[in-house]
Every structure is written in structure tokens, then in C-alpha cells.
Amino acid sequence: MDIRELRYFAAVFRERNLTAAAKRCFISQPSISAAITNLEAELGAALFIRHKKGMAPTEAAEQFHAVARRIIDEADAAKNLFRKPATRNALTLGLMRTLDRPRTIALLKPLTGTSDIALRLVGVDDDADARIVSKNLLRADEHFVPLWVERYVAALPPSHPLTLKERLRTTDLAGVAMVDRCHCEQSEFFGRAASASRQPAAIAESEDWAMALVAAGVGIAIVPEGVARANPDVAVREIDVDVKREVGLAYSAARPPSETLQNFIAKLQSQRPKAGRAKSKARYPASRNGRVGTV
Known about the structure:
D-Maltodextrin-Binding Protein, domain 2; eight-stranded mixed sheet; two-stranded antiparallel sheet
């Protein structure tokens, strides 16, 4: 086996789909399929179960992935061992605190994997070259590059009685313990939409903390779908309040962007068809409601 086959295996393991993995590795689908077949023959074990919706990793793949990932990381580290530090261009991004982890990782990975960019992350209100924010937080003097649109859903403890319903109405939440989020950009709207009997059981300072409280059974949280779907320890249900948020890159219209920021914007714009809900679906781990979420 060679390092390329391990990279292809890791891509298929992550994407659960040959076509998506081939795009990630910039090769053809037959090439990545042949590499997986060769790897299975060399290991003497089936790594994936092929089905109509994609590739399901076997127990052998689960065991092998940790080994393959370590070899890939060590090979990458070896490449950089004797490289002279290149001149690095600074890029400071302000991140909205309600971003979900899968999308944040996908957004930042191209930047962290580039040796010529010194990435610095700050709060959404701190000085930055650009900000990743919901469109309703856009300032008057900022341009906006759309990245994705997602709706709000209810995240529930897996054993909560309301998980028996496929869709929740506002009246279903009357008198129910709720977990509020300090940094919810739609807090004013949901405050108006909630009934008078609604009382928060807790106020979480971060998305992770909110999901932890939901998983612990403290209450129900109304969160962006990506946040809920990324957490396998909560159940997810649609709500009858049709509220969505559009997330994108905001940058100053008063001053020209740096070359580094221009390149980042160009890359984001080239990926827009993949990021939009209408043309592509972002994958999230299956939550305990038994379904894999897509947004």
C-alpha cells in the first residue's frame, strides 16, 4: 500500500461516498474505487459495504482508520520537518459563536492547511479582516458573500415525550423547560413568538454547552439545524416557526481587501454551488432520532 491509497481511504471514510471522496482528492471516481479495492485485497478485509446511497464503513474500516490517519499525519509532518518557514500573510477572521462544528471545520481547513497564511481567530465584534456571520448581523459598511442557509429546529433530550411528534408547534412548547442561548442572533424573534408560560430552565453561553444541557435532559433548545444535527446525543424535530438564517463572509466595503482575503473570497465564491442548500446537502452525523440530517 502507499500513502495515496491511505489518503483515498480516509476521504471515503469521511465522506461515505465515492463521488464526494473523489472530488475531495481531485481524482476520478474509478481511480478512488480501484484504490479502495486494492487496499482491501492487500489487507484481506472488506473496508466498506457498497449500497445505493454510498459507502458504509465496516468494523475493519473503523479499526484501520485510526492507523491510516496516524500514518497520513506523520507523513505530512515529515514533509514539513526540514522546510524553511515561508513568509506568512496574516488573516484575522471574526467568528460568530453560533456556527456549527462541521461547517466551521470545512470552512477553516483550507486556511489551516496552507503554510503561507497565519490565521488568527477572534470574536465577531473584535477587529478583523472579515467576519463569518448571519446576514442579519451585517453592518451597513460591509459586503457579504453568502455561504449557506439553514433553518432553526428543536433539539430535544432523546427520551423527551415530544420526540414522539415529527413536527412541533409553538403551543407544544408552552410550559416546557427550555435551554436558551446567550448568543442566539434570533433571540428577539423567538422571545416574541414564545408563549407567556415559557420559562428558560438554563441559559447556555455556548452551543456546545446548550447541546450538553439538552442531552442531559435539562430542557429543549431552539437552535440552527447544523448545530443540532452535529450532536448525536440529542433528538431533532422541525418546528412550525419558519425562521432561517443566511451565513456568509462579511468584510469592509470602506477599504480594499488584502490579497490573502481576496484569494479566500475567490475560493468561497467558487465553492458556493456546493455550499447552497438547493444544490448540495451538508452531511451531519445521525442523531438519536435515527436519521441522518441534511441541510
